[in-house]
Structure formats: structure tokens, C-alpha cells
Amino acid sequence: MKKLVILTGAGMSAESGISTFRDSGGLWEQYPVEQVATPEGYRANPKLVIDFYNARRKELLRVKPNKGHELIASLEPYFDVTVITQNVDNLHERAGSTRVIHLHGELTKVTSSREPDNPAYIRELKPEEYDVKMGELAPDGSQLRPFIVWFGEVVPMIETAIDYAEQADIFVIIGTSLNVYPAAGLLNYVPSRVPVYLIDPKEVTIVSGRKVHVIRKGASEGMEELKNMLLKER
Ligand code: APR
Questions:
Q1: Nearest alpha carbon to residue 215 among 226, 206, 207, 227
Q2: Given 30, 38, 68, 151, which residue has the most CB atoms within 10 angstroms?
Q3: Domain 1-17+65-104+156-234, what fold?
């Protein structure tokens, strides 16, 4: 089976009703990124940050996977599919994708403020626990913090993601402005013989200069077109 690797960003979940970050009206226009998505912001005002992610978690309960997520999951009988996502929602999993690598963490999980990457402290929340309170502690006695990779923090899953990018037979990019590294650099690890497809309704600048098959459409429509192409060429 050919290895299909799909890198997704906020645009993947846009049609589910989750805001992107950098489009007009996007999240970083409403919330200063340095306040809610950096370790310094968290140190300065942990409650603000915890509440921000509580609100994002609550949103998860209202939204559902869109056609694009479902089409990606539907490719598993035909390809060895790996989803590498920058998204912290769980919509790929809920659509049925079985191998999902989260580069920037997961909203449904919490960890220790002191050692956020220590697997011993990373824990999945039950929906009734989604509203994390100040004073709720991790087993090491530190405040429970969202399991989110903030700007300036290491991205522990990048090595795993690079391994998959290097092994890809087909590489697909959906709904990301490719502004944030190291995720945006993954394409550099994809062998040059490998076909690359990009689905996005807007123009996205690819710095590597390699040939990319662009599908200038939203995630659902674009995935429909891509699925037809991939199944024909298989
Ligand atoms: N279908 C597909 N793509 C879409 C859609 C849609 N319906 N709507 C918007 N897009 C595209 C936009 O054109 C843009 O290229 O999604 C992309 C969203 O870009 P960003 O908002 O920059 O999101 P992303 O690239 O995922 O951000 C990366 O930055 O803030 C951090 O950690 C956060 O993971 C995030 C990272």
C-alpha cells in the first residue's frame, strides 16, 4: 500500500465552524497570541490562558467533523494514511482516522505546568472535566495546564512527523498558511520524486520552490477532487 501523508492546519476544521488563526476575523485577531499561546503569557496570567482553552474545549462539544475529515478517513482502505495535524481539535479522530500525529498538542488533554512533555503527566480529560479550574493540580503538585505546544516551546512530535514525511509516497497539505515552523518545514523532508498536492481556497506560498499540484478549493470540495484523482491513479 502506498504511504499517503497528509499535513493539515486550521483550514481543515474551518468548515466545521472552528476559526482559523490568521484569516481576517481569525483567533489571533481576537486574542493576543503572546497572552494565550506563549509560556510567558501563561506565567503572567494562568487563569486567562486556562479559560481560553476551556472555551476552545467547550467548542469541541458543539462541532463535528466535516466532509473533508471524513474523506481523509475514507482513504484508509486504499492507502497507508498518516495525518500530521497542527490542529489541537479531535475532528480527524472523530471522523475515523486511525493514525493522527498532533504537532501542537491536543485540547482534550492536560499535563503538568512543571514538566509538560513528561508522558507520566499527560492525561485525557473526560468531557465533564473540560472546564479546568485554577487550583486543579497535576500529580506533581503543579497547576494542570493545557497539553498545547505554545510558541517558543519544543515540538516533541516533530521527529516522528519527519520520519513519516521522509517515507511518504504521496504528500498532501490542507488548510495551513505554512507560517509556523517546524511544521511548515516538513515538506523539505519529502523526497523530490513524491507528488505533492495542496488544498486551500487562498494562495499559499511554498518556499521550497518545488512543483506542487494546487487545488484552490475548501477542504471538503478539495478532498473530493483529490480522492477521485488518487483512486484513479492508484
Ligand atoms: N478549507 C481549506 N483551507 C482553508 C479554509 C477551508 N474551508 N478556510 C481557510 N483555509 C486556509 C486559509 O486560506 C489559510 O491558508 O487555512 C489556512 C489557515 O492558516 P492559519 O490560520 O495560519 O492556520 P495554521 O496554518 O494551521 O496555523 C499554524 O499557528 O497559531 C498557530 O499553533 C497554531 O497550529 C497553529 C499554527
A1: 226
A2: 68
A3: Rossmann fold (3.40.50)
